[in-house]
Amino acid sequence: MSNSSIFPTFDIEDRTFSKLILGHNPFLGGSYMSQARSRLYKETFTDSKAIERIIVKSIEMGVRGMMASLSDGFSELLKKAQLEAADKTGVLLPTIMIINRDFEDHLETYRKLNCQVMLIHGQISDALFIKAKRTMQPEFSQMLKRIREEGFIPAMSTHNAGEVLPAAESFDAVAVNTPINKIMWRMCPCEEMVLNAIRKTKKKVIAMKTLAMGRIAPQEGMAYICRLPEVDGIVVGIGHEYEAEETFGAAHDFL
Known about the structure:
By secondary structure, the protein is α/β, with parallel strands linked by helices. The chain has ten helices and twelve strands. It has helices spanning about 35-45, 50-60, 75-90, 105-110, 120-125, 140-150, 160-165, 190-200, 220-225, 240-255, and strands at about 10, 15-20, 20-25, 65-70, 95-100, 115-120, 130, 135, 155, 175-180, 205-210, 235. Strands 3-12-11-10-9-6-5-4 form an eight-stranded parallel β-sheet. A hairpin with a 2-residue loop joins strand 1 and strand 2. Helix 7 (about 160-165) packs parallel to helix 8 (about 190-200) and helix 9 (about 220-225) packs parallel to helix 10. It is globular, with a radius of gyration of 17 Å. The two termini are about 20 Å apart.
């Protein structure tokens, strides 16, 4: 496959990802917009072929990275879709996996899914934040160390970047995944604190909820997020090939 349309890339240590990263929430039946949309996703992504089509389209649009997490029944679908998409395109997407405390129980699956970076789940990172001391509980550094020992790059998610990111700055989480979007949806505790934190951090910044789960049109959302110099990566969930064409096409317009 030609590399002419590949998005600009960024490195997390020695692992390379495209600036646009395919998200997986729709594959899991996740929608913050409505129960009807969640039901549609759940009915659509019942086999690997539906996921494969979106992965292939994303690769064709220049994406070279995916973010995902393990879920009952989903991991096998994703693995099959990844491999089938790789057979068709010659590209096996590297993954950034969102992990929980028991991640060592699933190391074989993570490796089969081409995991390169592990993100501590945002609910865990946020729960381990010690607000009074502006630091993180010991378990946070212990999880990062365990990730590193298994050969993955340690990173973190947070839904409270304005407070948690500065508190975690000195820890060995080399990337952070957090909500950043034009309408400030889920940017906690406020837009000013989040933007200030990502300007100051030395970690790689991956923006999520960039379209605010459908509340922002792709052209408008990409115009905002692609022009933020502090943002290294942008993860976007895609529910249909047409969405991949529109959203990734809009990102190409600004990159």
